[in-house]
């Protein structure tokens, strides 16, 4: 027969066991596999690398990102987000130009004419997320704005009007339709090939974001054409299933850092203006001259950029394109 003391000891042990089971275990730190669409250390990719460091500092004990590398070392930049959506990676830093193959509506992110804060208020980001959901992609935010896209030209290839006839230009999907509409012949290449193509004379120029130009390209670049067009936005995207599996605390840390950077980069902010001043000064000191189209030529340049981009976009996205244009552009 069980003694009174034995009963009490057993009862106490049962209570202790129950208490342990009722108390939630501390969540384990989650490590996400991160990748970049740019070579590690390349100017357009540095903001994502800095963002990863900030997340790792604020997310200790909750969420960390292990940055595995960048394209093309890890493969084509055009496959990074696709592979991420399939589960090879968990989070990535990429411009929309590199994930239009998986989300055809991605170019809307570079054609935005209102701030990202407005897009979060007017339903633009929510609608884009509805589209991205179908591809298992979570749009976290725009962590960096590399400025407008400019045309950069080699010595002896200056232009004085909105006409690119006779020029062979290196392109990405961002400005292919635009440059072709103005008469250029075009070819695609990876980022590391730009210097070789320019140095050899295989191309006469290239399109690139003004803040993201590689220092190695400066010796083979003589002119920058203004005005710039579109926005060279670089975004943080994640595998949707992985994102949904994270704790509320982990998602809050990621959102806080990414959207914090998004807000800091808005075009009218003091930080953005300072970046532009530093960039323009550095390019001028490096010997890159500015060609500024004015009057009707400037209007033609900007108008053609906008028209060709949205015409191509709506042709490729007839169901979603008109609504995205309405949400992402300023009222005419």
TrEMBL record:
GO terms for biological process: transmembrane transport. The keyword Signal applies. Residues 1-27 form the signal peptide. InterPro entries: DctP_fam, TRAP_DctP_sf. Keywords: Periplasm, Signal. The keyword Cell cycle does not apply. Pfam families: DctP. It is found in: Periplasm. GO terms for cellular component: periplasmic space. CDD domains: PBP2_TRAP_DctP1 (cd13667). Transmembrane segments: none annotated. This is TRAP dicarboxylate transporter, DctP subunit, putative. It comes from Sagittula stellata (strain ATCC 700073 / DSM 11524 / E-37).
């Amino acid at each position: 027969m069980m003694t009174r003391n034995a009963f009490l000891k057993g009862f106490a042990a049962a209570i202790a066991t129950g208490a342990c089971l009722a108390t939630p275990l501390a969540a384990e730190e989650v490590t996400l596999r991160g990748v970049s669409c740019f070579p590690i250390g390349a100017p357009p990719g540095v903001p994502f690398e800095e963002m990863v460091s900030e997340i790792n500092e604020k997310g200790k004990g909750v969420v960390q990102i292990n940055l595995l590398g960048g394209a093309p070392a890890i493969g084509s930049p055009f496959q990074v987000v696709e592979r991420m959506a399939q589960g090879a990676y968990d989070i990535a830093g990429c411009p929309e130009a590199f994930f239009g193959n998986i989300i055809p509506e991605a170019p809307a992110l570079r054609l935005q004419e209102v701030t990202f804060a407005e897009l979060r208020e007017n339903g633009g980001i929510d609608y884009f997320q509805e589209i991205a959901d179908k591809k298992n992609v979570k749009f976290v935010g725009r962590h960096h704005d590399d400025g407008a896209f400019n045309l950069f030209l080699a010595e002896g290839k200056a232009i004085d009007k909105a006409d690119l006839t006779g020029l062979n230009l290196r392109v990405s999907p961002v400005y292919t339709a635009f440059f072709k509409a103005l008469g250029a012949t075009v070819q695609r290449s990876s980022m590391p090939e730009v210097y070789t193509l320019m140095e050899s004379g295989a191309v006469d120029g290239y399109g690139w974001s003004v803040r993201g130009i590689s220092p190695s390209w400066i010796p083979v670049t003589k002119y920058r054409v203004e005005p710039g067009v579109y926005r060279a936005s670089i975004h943080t995207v994640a595998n949707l299933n992985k994102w949904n599996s994270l704790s509320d605390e982990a998602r809050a840390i990621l959102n806080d850092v990414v959207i914090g950077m998004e807000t800091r980069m808005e075009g009218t902010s003091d930080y953005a203006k300072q970046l532009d001043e530093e960039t323009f000064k550095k390019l001028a000191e490096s010997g890159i001259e500015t060609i500024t189209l004015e009057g009707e030529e400037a209007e033609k340049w900007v108008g053609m950029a906008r028209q060709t981009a949205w015409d191509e976009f709506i042709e490729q996205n007839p169901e979603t394109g008109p609504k995205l244009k309405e949400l992402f552009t300023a009222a005419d």
